[in-house]
Amino acid sequence: MKSGTWVLIAAGGLMACAAAGWRLSQFRTSEKSGPVAVSSGSVTAPAQATTKEASAPEPAEKEPAPGDNPRVVKWVFSAAAGVEMARNEVTLDAYKMCYHAGACSLDGVDSVVYKRGGAHYQGSCHWNDYQPDHADIFDRMNPMNCVSVSDAEAFCDWVGGRLPTYAEWVAEATNGGQRAYPWGNEKPSCERAVVLDDPMEPGCGKHWWKVCSKPLGNSASGLCDMIGNVSEYVSKDGGYFEVGGSDVKGFEELESANLLRGSAVGSDQRDDRFGFRCVRNPVPR
């Protein structure tokens, strides 16, 4: 052969080997399943499995139930009454929370009209706290007024309670019959209660006060304003009464006998002198 022929044969062999090598690179022999196709390009190694699971997202912070929220109601156990009673009369702020939760109504709580001697008088309802000229009266911590018994029951149901019975209220107000008044046997005064002061000044000259403004008038269990500020709804004999007196009750009207007797009210009656507090059966600790 000529030398040129050997060159051609050698070149052909190299090309054949190269072609064969490329084809073989397309397959890998598996003992179990035979030839397996693999990519001829670059291969990225799979991420190593981890035994640590991804952290679960933090649970959303749960809003406290209204009955467990001290901004809405502060429960105090009354040994004399055998129930837990709200420390203070329900405030405007707390009632607003109930309204925004969809559990309380606004119907009628912003307007009360009295008819006296042929004239009409507009009551001072605390819901109207947006009125600039009443800013000193309608504080959000004032007791809620102008509510009906039905409104009060709706609120108490929302917080997991109810209105107190007359017997429960009197038991706490007298410490089981041991006191003439929540604070003791001393007669009412502006040091202890928000009532009608001399000379004829409602609420000791300030009309309504923020709840718990008269700590000297607290009951044996620490309840505020059981006398004065607004009178409070209680259930009695299948009906309802208002007890405790309000900011327009004079000292002589607050003699314990009159005070504890109370006055009957209708379930839909409204008055800017009427408010309420709630009670509930003791919660197991």
Write the layout of secondary structure elements.
Layout: H1 3-24, E1 27-30, E2 34-37, E3 75-78, E4 83-86, H2 92-100, E5 113-116, E6 119-122, H3 149-158, H4 166-173, E7 231-236, E8 239-243, H5 256-261, E9 263-265, E10 274-275, E11 279-280
Parallel strand pairs: 7-10
Antiparallel strand pairs: 1-2, 3-4, 4-11, 5-6, 7-8, 8-9
Compact summary:
This protein is α+β, with helices and mostly antiparallel strands and 285 residues long.
What does this protein structure show overall?
- By secondary structure, the protein is α+β, with helices and mostly antiparallel strands.
- It has a domain of 189 residues: Alpha-Beta Complex (paralog of FGE (formylglycine-generating enzyme)).
- About 15% of the residues have low confidence.
- It has a four-stranded mixed sheet. Strands 3-4-11 form a three-stranded antiparallel sheet, with no helix packed on it.
- The protein is built from five helices and eleven strands.
- The radius of gyration is 40 Å and the shape is globular.
- 19% of the residues lie in helices and 15% in strands.
Overall geometric form: globular
Beta-strand share of residues: 5-15%
Task: Provide the residue-averaged pLDDT.
Answer: 80
Number of strands: 11
Tell me the CATH topology of the domain at 78-105 and 120-280.
paralog of FGE (formylglycine-generating enzyme)
Secondary-structure element string: HEEEEHEEHHEEHEEE
Rg over CA atoms, rounded to whole Å, is 40 Å
